[in-house]
Amino acid sequence: MSAEAENIPIDILYEDEDILIVNKPKQMVVHPAPGHPNGTLVNAVLYHCGDSLSGINGVLRPGIVHRIDQDTTGSLIICKNDNAHLKVAEQIAEHSLTRRYLGIVHGRLPKDEGVIDAPIGRNPKDRKMMAINRINGKEAITHYKVLQRFKDYTYCEFRLETGRTHQIRVHMASIGHPILGDPLYGPKKCPIKGLVGQTLHAWKIGFIHPISGEYVEFEAPVPEYMSNLLKKLPE
């Protein structure tokens, strides 16, 4: 099995000979996997870049150096060659990337800002889920800051020190404030009619450019669905 190029529009935030920064839309899977053989970001990027993608992660994940969840929107780094891939992957392993997210959580957070420091690992009761796991989990640190409080929700900025799977979703659920629209870690039935998936956006990403050696930072605009929702939530 290999990924095929598909003519799917992509929102490009930046591009040069070594890297491509894309703004991933909601409901798009990053790379082919069981249940999602096509229509992924990889299929779209293959059409755009052709053979100019790193091959380190194999034929199903060309150019992919990190991921965000299917229903999380926002900035993602694509590497066009193995040299760029190795240098960006090293920064990811060292947790030296700048990663800032925006999201809406259930409830009104009492503190204006805080830090959640709790290891994350596989949920022993459900392998599809992650959980706070103090025995087998890996270090995970999330900083949150309140941007706006509503009657039943809080709009937040999140800064990641680490990049564990489902990190923000697990951490916020662990303190009783799951991400709005998250059926895995929050209420099964979404209280907002028509909302699909978690209200989480990979807003900013910054790193040392693998070739120039200079720090670069990119910002993905707040998605329309989120900005519209913020206008409608009662305060």
Question: What would your notes on this structure say?
Answer:
By secondary structure, the chain is an alpha+beta fold. The chain has 4 helices and 11 strands; from the N terminus they run ββαβαββββββαββα. It has helices spanning 41-49, 82-93, 167-174, 224-232, and strands at 11-15, 19-24, 73-79, 98-106, 113-117, 120-123, 126-132, 141-149, 153-160, 200-208, 215-219. The strands form 2 sheets. Strands 1, 2, 3, 4, 5, 8, 9, 10 and 11 form a 9-stranded mixed beta sheet that branches. A hairpin with a 3-residue loop joins strand 8 and strand 9 (153-160). The longest helix is centred in the middle third of the chain and has 12 residues, at 82-93. The radius of gyration is 18 Å and the shape is globular. The termini are far apart.
What's this, in brief?
The protein has 235 residues and is α+β, with helices and mostly antiparallel strands.
- End-to-end span in angstroms? 50 Å
* Mean pLDDT rating: 95
- State the major sheet: 9 strands, mixed
Structural category = alpha+beta
Question: How many helix segments?
Answer: 4
Q: Strand-residue fraction?
A: 25-35%
What is the helix/strand order? EEHEHEEEEEEHEEH
How many β-strand runs? Answer: 11
Portion in helices: 10-25%
Low-confidence stretches: none
Radius of gyration: 18 Å
